[in-house]
Amino acid sequence: MAAEPYRLVHYLRFAFVFLVLLWIFVQFGGTGDARNQYTTLFRKFRDQRTVFVSDFLNHDVNGPYNGDGLSDLCATKKWTPGLLLTCDAVPGSMTDVKNGILTCMRVAIEIGAEIILPEIMLRSTMDLSDITPHDRGPRRGAPLEQFFDRAYLLNTMGQYCPELKIHESLNDFFDEPNVLTPVPLDLYKVPGIEIASNLPGSAGKLVVDKDKLGKQILDMINAKSPPNARQYPFRIAMRPTPSYFIPSFSDPPPLRRYFGRLLRVRPDLRALAAGMLFNLQKAFGLTIDPRQGIDVDAFVGVELRTQPDPLTFPAYEIQASDALSYISANNMSQVFLTEGATVDDAKAFATRCKDFGVNVVTKDDLVEGPDVLALSELSYDERFLVDYEVVLHAGLFTGNAQSSFAWNVGLRREFAFGEPGAANSSHLNGTLRWHSPYSTLYGKGHVGDDFRRAVWP
Q1: Which parts pass through the membrane (predicted)?
Q2: Which residues contact 93 (CB under 8 A, 6 or more apart)?
Q3: Helix, strand, or coil here: 310?
Q4: Cβ-based neighbours of 158, under 8 Å, separated by 6 or more
Q5: With 50 as the cut, is the pLDDT of residue 453 above it?
């Protein structure tokens, strides 16, 4: 009888080794249908939430990053070792900050310089409309990883644009005192720069011909400091760092569709969004698969902007009416409401939606366990980063054209899922500014035109 327990332990050892080898094969070996079958088998034995979050983190809505456009851009530039560009910290919302950092990177590429990535100037916690508190002298702020995934950025740039050398900070030049006295660069004061002040809605922000930008900047710098008499490293300091200066809409499609994806939301916020999306589908009885794009009938992402803001948004009644008209016209019954509305307005909107048989949830309704504390510790703009990851997976999305966030979401979803539609789509009420099969922005005239032309989503 004593041999029986021994034999059982012996068999269990073999079974354990077999399962380990099978797992290794599934993860690192096998191809085609065989690997897919084994992967599907293992998924059945894993926690559903864990699988969902893993799928979310490993799959972007646009699919894998395509760096062909970036590689082509970097390959056409003349690079000068020791030419260093630094940029003031970028203030504003998540989209303002993202576009400002990308603008700094793009200028560095255009002039063939090395770069220290700009920091993020955090808005006031006492007054959300104050995006540049204590704004004296060179702007300083939090590191880039406050919002974005620095490791992902460095790895992607290293693969597709290794010519652009990225330094950690000025500390890398502690033994080079000449970098402490940089040549200042204000993009709007570069000789020869033509600003598109005649474009409706641009507010005189966008450069007309970005292809001349690099030469114009270098001509100005060389006039101030002749290259043959220059000591390297030689620093150029861009002050301020504009968020909407380069017209991204005129970039070749392979570049415009993917340049903004260099700045991916930091991993812990993406994981938080994934958990919320999993709970959202459970609450509404939906089927959402992060590996498969979107289901247009899933839920509507809605942004209402009534919190204090540097920009002036339409009254709550107008925004709520537009959103409810959009929801009703599309026969939707589940809504995810993003950050941006006051507590009272969010409650009023949810109550009004109930009259139409529509359920409204927010981030706070969808967190549980440790995620509750994690969400409570986020800033206003960090909460928008979580919203961004959630509403990218919405079936439909609507917001106001005055919002850079709404343009970022709408354009990213256009690149991922569908082309823009006619601005006068007859099945929708309200004043339409921009419309695609999956996203609609409301607004009068040319409002938000600088966002539409300049955002890298």
Answers
A1: 12-30
A2: 131, 381, 384, 404, 405
A3: coil
A4: none
A5: yes
pLDDT at 46 exceeding the cut of 70: no
How many residues are listed for the chain in this entry? 457
Nearest-angstrom CA–CA distance, 271 and 391: 14
In the 8-state DSSP scheme, what is residue 130? -
Query: Cis ω on the peptide bond leading into residue 64 (within 30° of 0)?
Result: no
How is 372-432 classified by DSSP, letter by letter? HHHHHT--HHHHHHHHHHHHTTSSEEEEETT-HHHHHHHHHHHHHH---B-TT-TTS-S-E
Reported as a pLDDT band with limits 50, 70 and 90, residue 31 is low
- The Cα-based distances of 28 to 40, 54, 226, 378 in angstroms read 15, 16, 55, 37
For the domain 267-454, what is the CATH code? 3.40.50
User: What pTM, to 2 d.p., does this model score?
Assistant: 0.88
Among 310, 169, 138, 142, residue whose Cα is nearest residue 240? 138
Domain ranges across the chain: 3-45, 68-262, 267-454
The tokens for 304 are: 């209402």
pLDDT digits (tens, 9 = 90+) for 334-362: 999 999 999 999 999 999 999 999 999 99
Q: Note whether 214 and 222 are within 8 A (CB).
A: no
State the Cα–Cα distance between residues 189 and 211, nearest whole angstrom.
17
Q: Which residues contact 352 (CB under 8 A, 6 or more apart)?
A: 320, 324
C-alpha–C-alpha distance, residues 80 and 139, integer Å: 26
Q: Give CA–CA dist 169/173, Å, rounded.
A: 8
Place of tokens 């359920």: 359
Q: What angle do CA 34, 287, 358 make, to 5 degrees?
A: 170
User: 194, 441 in Cβ contact below 8 A?
Assistant: no
